[in-house]
Each structure stands twice: as C-alpha cells, then as structure tokens.
Inverse folding.
C-alpha cells in the first residue's frame, strides 16, 4: 500500500462515524414528516405496482387474540391512537399509512398488484414471514422488537426494496410524535 | 482485384498493429464481462450476512483491471453491460437500478482518483470504489423510501464496502503483476511485424 492509500482510509474513517451517528440521531428522534395516502390510493382494485398503487390488506390467518386483522388506512394527522405497547408503521413507496397498534398476535398480507408480503405482528416483535420479492432480503432481516432494535443494523425497520415496502416498529412515544407530524 | 487508396504516409504495419491491438482489447473486454457476470452470479448464491447489501464485490476487482488496462470509457461500458445483463439473465430487474446507482458513482470516483491523484495504488482506489458503490445504492434506497434515517445503515455498508474494496484492490494488484496486459507501464514498445 502507498501513502495516499492511507489518506483514503483516513478520510473514510472520518466520514463513517459522522454518518452513523447522524443516522442514529434521525432514527431515535422523530420520524420523518409523514406523507399521507390520498383518498384514491386505497382502491384495492388498482392493478399495477408501477403506479405506486396502494396496498390492499388481506388476512391470512386468524389472529390469536380475537382482534380484527389490521387495515391499512390513510394517515390522519393528530388522530387519536388506541393504546398499545408498540405500533407498526407501514410505508409503501413514499406513502405513509396510519400506525397500527400491536396488542396481540396476528399475521396479515399486504398485497400491491402482484407484490405480496406477509407480516407477522405480536407484542414480542414484528417480522416478515413471507415475500414474493426477488431477493428475500426482507425475510432474512429477522424480528424487530423494542428490545433488540438498538442492536440492529436497520434499527427498527424491515425493508423490502423490490416492493418498496418499509415496516417500522414504533414505541408509543414515537407513534404519538409521528401522528403529530413532528 | 481492388485497391483501397491509402492515406499519404500511412504505414501498413502500424495499421495492422493497431487493428490487432483493437481486436485484442475487444476480446479482453468480452472475457472480463463474462467473468464479471459469473462472479456476480456466484456471489448472489452465497449470503455473507443477514444484513442486506453485504457482499464481496469480486466484480470490482475486474473493474479495477479494466480501468487500469483498458481505459475509463471501456470501464463504464462494461459496468453498465454487467448490471443490465445480470438483471436480465438472473431474473432480478430491480437490481438494475441499484446496480447502476452504485456502479456509476463507484466507477466515476475510481476514474477521478486514477486520473487525478498520483501515488494511489489499486488498493486505495478499490477502497474508494467499494465505499462509493454501497453509498450510491443506499442513497437511492433513501430517495425511493424517503427515509433519511438509513444513514446509519449506509455508514455500515460503506465500512464493509471499503474493507471489501481493499481486498479486491489487492487482488487486482496481484493479477496486474501476473498479466502485463493490464499494466500499461509494461506495454511492449513498437508494432508487431
């Protein structure tokens, strides 16, 4: 290695921690300003994922606690959230949906055209049970819980890039900040 | 029998040599492209980590060889072709956009470093290439998802990219010593008869 190679390494070594801690700061602070789904976007008949169609929700299994399968509905600023220990935030493309309170065990399907993702929720955490995406990375990202998210590379997220789907596990405070649009 | 008029002062030996050299470069480019495709496919079968986006990036080693031996323009061409063909052949079209994002940034930065910074070895260039490749991909993901919080993920991927870039840079250094075709300083002077 030559002297200037060490200079490249030094520059990279300086930039990386700054980026890392900046990202952590953004993660643990307030969620990014949510962009609500439009009224038209929730038409489950919308066909093509290329149009950034809204996902339709179809439950796959009966929830254990007798809850209804969660519905994806437009995000409404300042809406009152039901009490829960944690919340699931769904984002498809750049469209945000209202946080889903997690009170019991449930599995539901998010379908957008041909794209399908099966999500499992419980108070212990959330994970992607199945996806028909090309790279299956979202399934390998494992479970996110309020306890383990600090140690995860993607923090509180599970991301399915081919389907432009992002799941975020929020604490009650974070969910309230998110709804207030802070 | 027809005779093509020759330009005044044209040396047929030089013309033949240039044509031979050009054919050689085309053949080398094709071999490198095929190797990049195979390496990319093999890498996709092996999962280094559960963290998405972590891979060795062996194609970067060949890209470095192309940058040093065949030029910047050829490197861009091979990178774009590799990304397009991988996406089409291996059934992962979504990877095309991320591959192009990372590849364009990475090859641009490596080209600038090779042209503009004296005293940098392929290892340093490889590190910069690995770092910027992953940076480009995560930047695109951040744009698509509108999520600036992925910066911490980007930092981790950049660190891994830098480490893998050092590895591939070292490999390209070894290959350059063994294959003088990729070392412009060892080019034989004068045309072949």
């Amino acid at each position: 290695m030559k002297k200037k190679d060490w200079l490249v390494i030094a520059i990279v070594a300086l930039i990386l921690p700054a980026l890392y801690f900046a990202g952590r700061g953004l993660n643990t602070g307030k969620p990014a300003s949510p962009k609500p789904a439009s009224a038209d976007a929730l038409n489950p008949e919308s066909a093509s994922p290329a149009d950034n169609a809204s996902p339709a929700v179809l439950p796959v299994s009966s929830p254990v606690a007798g809850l209804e399968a969660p519905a994806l509905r437009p995000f409404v600023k300042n809406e009152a959230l039901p009490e829960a220990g944690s919340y699931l935030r769904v984002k498809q493309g750049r469209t945000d949906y209202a946080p889903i309170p997690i009170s019991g065990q449930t599995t539901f399907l998010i379908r957008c055209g041909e794209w399908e993702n099966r999500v499992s929720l419980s108070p212990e955490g959330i994970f992607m049970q199945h996806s028909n995406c090309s790279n299956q990375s979202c399934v390998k990202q494992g479970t996110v819980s309020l306890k383990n998210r600090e140690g995860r590379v993607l923090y509180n997220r599970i991301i399915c890039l081919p389907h432009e789907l992002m799941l975020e596990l929020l604490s009650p405070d974070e969910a309230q900040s998110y709804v207030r649009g802070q | 029998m027809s005779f093509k008029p020759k330009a005044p002062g044209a040396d047929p030996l030089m013309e033949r040599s240039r044509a031979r050299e050009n054919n050689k470069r085309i053949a080398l480019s094709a071999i490198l492209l095929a190797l990049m495709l195979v390496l990319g496919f093999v890498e996709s079968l092996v999962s280094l980590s559960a963290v998405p986006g972590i891979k060795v990036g062996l194609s970067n080693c060949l890209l470095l060889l192309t940058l040093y031996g065949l030029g910047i323009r050829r490197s861009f061409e091979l990178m774009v072709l590799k990304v397009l063909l991988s996406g089409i052949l291996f059934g992962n079209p979504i990877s095309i956009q991320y591959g192009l994002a990372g590849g364009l940034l990475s090859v641009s930065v490596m080209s600038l470093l090779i042209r503009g910074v004296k005293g940098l070895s392929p290892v340093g260039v490889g590190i910069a290439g690995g770092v910027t490749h992953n940076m480009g991909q995560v930047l695109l993901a951040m744009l698509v998802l509108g999520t600036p919080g992925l910066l911490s993920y980007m930092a981790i991927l950049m660190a891994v990219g830098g480490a893998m870039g050092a590895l591939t840079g070292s490999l390209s250094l070894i290959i350059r010593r063994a294959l003088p075709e990729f070392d412009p300083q060892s080019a034989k002077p004068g045309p072949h008869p």
Remarks:
- The first helix of chain A runs from residue 3 to 28.
- The first strand of chain A starts at residue 56 and ends at 59.
- Chain A has a mean pLDDT of 78.
